[in-house]
Amino acid sequence: MTGGTAISHADFSPTIDAVLDSRGNDYIRVDPDGKHMRLDAHTVLKDKNLGSSVYAHYTGVVDMTPELGAILSGKDDAKSTEFGNSFVHFNFETGDEKLKALENGVFVGAGRFVLEKDRPITVEYRISQVIM
User: Fold this and answer.
1) Are 104 and 74 in contact (CB under 8 A)?
2) Do 82 and 132 form a contact (C-beta atoms < 8 A)?
3) Which helix (H) or strand (E) covers residue 110, if one does?
4) pTM of the model as a whole
5) How many helices (H) and strands (E) does the chain have?
6) Tens-of-pLDDT digits for all 132 residues of the chain?
7) 127 contacts: CB under 8 Å, gap ≥ 6
């Protein structure tokens, strides 16, 4: 992970508008049968308004579809994927009381792989809080 943003929906509290503040680490392994990838990623976000740091950690599973295989193998006809084959669970930690509620929530997301000309592969997640 070399860049990125985390921006909350206008109706979500606490509000966050953050950028990656460090190089993240993402550990990816493919299951022996080649059908799924397992994700384990860590990074630090910095809120642009508060100046606060937020540690973000997520784990997840990705279905190895033919479309994703085309992206990862660099095929010329590869295209961005739709949401629906990558699912994650997020945990957050922060020392800022204004963002502390993030630590107590259960957050899940769906991801997709985005291809743009002359840019590295990007992963986009839409994250939601689970309310019970």
Assistant:
1) no
2) no
3) strand 106-114
4) 0.87
5) 2, 8
6) 777 889 999 899 999 999 988 788 899 999 999 999 999 999 999 999 999 999 999 999 999 999 999 999 989 999 999 999 999 999 999 999 999 999 999 999 999 999 998 888 989 999 999 987
7) 88, 90, 107, 108, 109
